[in-house]
Structure formats: C-alpha cells, structure tokens
C-alpha cells in the first residue's frame, strides 16, 4: 500500500531513474512477452492483440470551494500517467493495420516515434516524441454548504466518496518530459467507466490559510478571518485526496479512446482491459481492440 498525505499542490510520488529508446516502434516488438491469465478475446487487430503500459507517476491534489458556478468548480483529483521513467511496456501484435500499430505504440511501447507532421511550436519535423497515457480520477466536493455546516456535522477530517469513471488521455511527450496535446479536451479525452474492487476515493478536510491574492476567488461561506499574531488572515476549508491505493483491480469494457498519430491527426478506436495497482506503480493493460 502507498500512503500519501494531502498537499495543496500536486505531489509527485515516484522518481525512478531510467533511460529512453530512440528506436521507433516495430511490428515485431522484442520486449518480454506478456503471458495472459485469461483467454484473449478476438480483436480487429488480431486475436492475440495485447498492449500493456506502466503508469509510474502518481499525483494527488486538494482544492478549496470556489466562488464560481458548479460547472467551474475544481474537484479533488488523483492523477496517474507515464513519464520518461516509465520503462515497463510490452505488446503482442499480429496486424499491420495503421490503427493497430498506433494503439500498440500508445498502450504498449516506450519507444520513440518520429514527428512527421508540419513543424510547430511543440515539434519540428523529424523530431522524436513519445506517447504518454494518463488517467484522472476525481470526485465531487463533499456535500457541505458552508464552514459552519461542516462543523455542525462533526467537522470530519476524513471521508470517502465514490467515483464511477476516469478521464483517459493519450498525450504526446517531448524529450524534455513535457506532456503535449493539440486541440481542446473534447478532442483528446474520453471517460472510461471502471468496475473496481474499491470504487471510492479517500478525502481529507482541513482549515488552512489562503494567500491574500486568492481570497476573492473562493466561496466566503467556507472561509473565516483569524488573528495570527499581529496579522489578520483568511482561513478556508480545503479537501484533497489522501489515498491508500486500494484500487487493486479495475476492469473496463469496450470504450472509445482517442489516439493521436505522428502527423497530429486523431482517430477513435474502442479498447477494453484492466487497470491494476502495485506498490510502486499502476499497469494499464488493453486486451481487446475494435476499429
């Protein structure tokens, strides 16, 4: 299990060292083959298509109640993705179809790809890039109407709330480890409905000081003035993910996912598989793909 304390800014947990490959993905991948534990389902990319990728970066964040409308409210978040130290990847591919090769690159390889589109502010033609899958879990703000309401309900410092989906994005990543996407969220991100052994996120609540330049952005119902020494400070209720990783096995049925290619174009395929957690990282495995 991993225990993570709440922070007001995202907290990077893992920083394992590792190198990178500059060899583009080939059809006959030489990574150690993955041995499936269940019979593989038929796929438009061949009956034995599988792709598996380590997601090695975990980030947990906390938020305040904002003054904006509900649609703009930030939410407590658990984010996991593959950065340049994510070395675990393998795939099995028996098809030469372009979307199948692309899915294998995105979900089952850490090899560099070559940018073939027009040069832009992120990539120059011929420059190497990588694929970085990312999943984001979040849950709505707890059902408190104010700071006083939280106190009247016993001012709990921990609660658990359910989630029913995660947001999946396949990013480009440059050689400096920057995640890059082109277009707006709707053209990059899709919701993945998950069935997990535990479908809740653990949250921590606390009252803490707020920088003076941020006070106007927050809901005053969740804030109060305090005298601290000779100064008056604003303190507000915050909520953040404080998670023992108990999402040990999450399955997802065929779900649309958006794949960006080496030209900047995007296509949609359907994938199904498993998200599993270990002590130091998570593994995203795709074992069914439909074009």
Please describe the topology of this protein:
Blueprint: E1 50-55, E2 57-64, E3 77-81, E4 89-92, H1 98-108, E5 113-114, E6 128-138, H2 147-152, E7 158-162, E8 165-173, E9 179-180, E10 189-193, E11 195-196, E12 200-209, E13 223-228, E14 231-241, E15 249-260, E16 266-277, E17 282-290
Antiparallel strand pairs: 1-4, 1-17, 2-3, 2-14, 3-6, 5-6, 6-8, 7-12, 8-9, 8-10, 11-15, 12-14, 13-14, 15-16, 16-17
Our measurement of the CA-to-CA distance between the termini, rounded to an integer number of angstroms, reads: 37 Å
Please summarize the sheet with the most strands. 11 strands, antiparallel
The helix content is under 10%
Number of helical stretches of at least 4 residues = 2
Tell how many strands the DSSP assignment holds. 17
Q: Report strand %.
A: 35-45%
**Overall pLDDT:** 83
Radius of gyration: 21 Å
Task: Pick out the low-confidence regions.
Answer: 1-41
Content-based structural category? mainly beta
Principal-axis shape equals elongated
The H/E string reads EEEEHEEHEEEEEEEEEEE
